[in-house]
Amino acid sequence: MLNILKDIPDHLPVAIGQAVEERWDSLTKPRGSLGRLEADVIKLAQIQGATMPRVDRRAMYVFCGDHGITAEGVSLYPSVVTREMVKNFMRGGAAISVLCRQLDIETFIVDAGVAGPKIEGTLDRRVAEGTGNFYREPAMSLEQAQAALHSGIELAQQAAEHFDLVGVGEMGIGNSTSASALLCVLADVRPEDAVGRGAGLDDKGVRYKCRILSAALAARTVDKSDPLAVLAAFGGFEIAMMAGFLLGAAARHLPVVVDGFISGSAFLIARAFCSSIGQHVFFAHRSAERGHKSLLADAGAKPILDLGLCLGEGTGAALAMGVLTAAVKLYREMATFAEASVSDAVNV
Questions:
Q1: What is the tally of structural domains in the chain?
Q2: Domain that holds residue 166
Q3: CA dist 103 to 62, 100, 309, Å?
Q4: Which of 230, 97, 241, 226 is nearest to 159 (CA)?
Q5: pLDDT digits (tens, 9 = 90+) for 129-156
Q6: Which of 28, 59, 207, 293 has an alpha carbon 20 to 30 Å from 248's alpha carbon atom?
C-alpha cells in the first residue's frame, strides 16, 4: 500500500556515527561534556548521511483538521475554534508563529481537513471537512485514511528538497481524544491513563471524556496489526497526514522533530507501518498531557526538553529545533585541540 516503506533504512549508518563521535572528542572540551547534545548531533548526522550535518534550512509544518468527536462534548471549545486558530496562524498571532519568527523557522500551515471554505495562504490538502464522530461511526473511510497518508508523504518529499530539519505540529479541536484512542489501541494503554485535560478540561470533564472514549473503543474493535484500519476508526486527517510525513521524510533522509502528544500519536501510526521509524525522528519534549508519558515510554523515546508544555501547534518542536541548531553549530564551529594549540590531556 505504501511503496515508500521500502526506501526507509532499517538501521542508521554506524561509520558516520563513529566519525562524528571522533570529531566531538577532538574538540576543545572534556570528552562527553556536552552530554545529550553530542548524541543528538550523531543521530542527526546519521539520518542525513553526512559527517558534517546541516540545519541552516529549517521549517515547521502545522497540520490542521476538525474532529467529529467534538459533538460529544469532549472538548472545552467548539470545533469552530480550529478554523479561527488557523486564521490566527496566518496572521502570525499564534505562539508557534512567534517562535518560528524568533528562531528563523519557515512555517507552513497545512489544511488537512478544516471545516468550511479554504483559508487563504494555507496548503490546502483537505481530505474532507473534518472527520466523522468515532463515538457513533468510523472517523474516516479506508480510502480517506490512505489519501491523507499519501498527502503527508508527498509534503515530506517536497520538504526534503528544500530543508535540512523540519518539525511537525498540529491544531484541531478534539484531537487529543483521537490521539488518546490511538494510544489505547496501538500501545495497549487504558483509557484512564490515556485521557488528559486537552485544551483545559476540569476533573469532571476528564472523567466524561474517558467514558466517551471507553464506549467508542468498545463499539469499534479493530486489529492493531492493521494500522490503516486503526487510523480510519479513530484518527484525524491531520494525524494521518503527519504520520505520512514522518514516513516520507525518513525515506528521504530528512530528520523530523515530533512535537507533543498529538504529534506523538501520528508517530504511533507511522511506527505501525514501519518499525524502525523511531531512528529517524526526534521527540521534542515531554508534554504535560497525561497520555504522553505512556506514549514516550512505549516509543522508548527520550525527549529533548521537559518544560511542562501542553499547547501543541509545534511549539515544543520549535524550541527543540533551536537546541538541535545550537548543538550542530557547536559541532561544526568549535576548534579542535590541534587547531587551538590546546593540549588534549587525555592523550598526554
A1: 2
A2: 58-322
A3: 16, 5, 18
A4: 241
A5: 999 999 999 999 999 999 999 999 999 9
A6: 293
Contact 151, 246 (CB under 8 A): no
Go through the chain and tell me how many residues it has.
348
From the list 72, 170, 289, 313, the catalytic residue is: 313
Q: Closest by alpha carbon to 247, among 1, 5, 3?
A: 5
Residue 313 annotated among the catalytic residues of the structure: yes
Start-to-end CA distance of the chain, whole Å, equals 58
Say which residue the cell 558534517 belongs to.
Answer: 52
2: alpha, beta or left? (left if phi > 0; alpha if psi -120 to 50)? beta
Q: In sequence order, which residues have a C-beta less than 8 Å from that of residue 33 and are 6 or more positions away?
A: none
DSSP assigned state of 72: G
pTM above 0.70, yes or no: yes
Name the residue with higher pLDDT: 198 or 240: 240
Residue 23, domain CATH: 1.10.1610.10
CA distances from 121 to 27, 57, 67, 127, 170 (A): 45, 21, 22, 17, 16
pLDDT at 348 over 80: no
Quote the CA–CA distance of 243 and 263 in Å, as a whole number: 8
CATH of the domain at 270: 3.40.50.10210
Residue 347 counted as domain residue: no
- Assess whether 15 and 128 both reside in one domain: no
Give yes or no for a contact between 270 and 277, defined as CB atoms under 8 angstroms apart: yes
Q: Hey, what's the cell of 337?
A: 585541540
CA nearest neighbour of 1 among 236, 246, 244, 203: 244
- Cβ(328)–Cβ(44) below 8 Å: yes
Q: Tell whether the model's pLDDT for residue 260 goes beyond 90.
A: yes
Per DSSP, the three-state class of 250 is helix
For residue 51, count CB atoms less than 10 angstroms from its CB and return exposed for 0-12, middle for 13-18, buried for 19 or more.
Answer: middle
